[in-house]
Amino acid sequence: MRSTSPTVSAFSHDDWLRQLSGVKLTHTVHVVSDPNATVASAAAAALKAAHGKVERWATSRFNDVLEHRIDVAEMTERAALDLRERLAALDGVVRAKVVHHLLRG
């Protein structure tokens, strides 16, 4: 009897992204931290080490926390996830998340 279950492909997200003409992958990294100045400088160092291109960095203060919203380009999905983990491990970081965007352009 033949199996009717689909075969899982080893085709990665980066592979299918290369197949989509005119599509750019960007990421928005959100970091919520204590209002500690060293978090911003440590985050900047982590971004530099990740070799992504920072397109925008906005910091807002809400009561007793800072929210950093960082738009990053020229980085793979895996690298963005690794960056999120590095940022989440920093002293003073309450939460870190990443949102991936596919942009036509």
Task: Give your account of this protein's structure.
It is a single chain. Strand 2 and strand 3 form a beta hairpin. The mean pLDDT is 85. The chain has a single domain (22-104), classed as ACT domain (Alpha-Beta Plaits). 31% of the residues lie in helices and 40% in strands. It is of the alpha+beta class and 105 residues long. The protein has helices spanning 13-19, 37-50, 77-88; strands at 23-33, 53-62, 65-73, 93-104. The relative contact order is 0.28. It has a four-stranded antiparallel sheet with strand order 2-3-1-4, covered by helices on one side. Helix 2 packs antiparallel against helix 3 (77-88). The chain contains three helices and four strands; from the N terminus they run H-E-H-E-E-H-E. The longest helix has 14 residues, at 37-50. It starts with 12 loop residues before the first helix and ends with a strand.
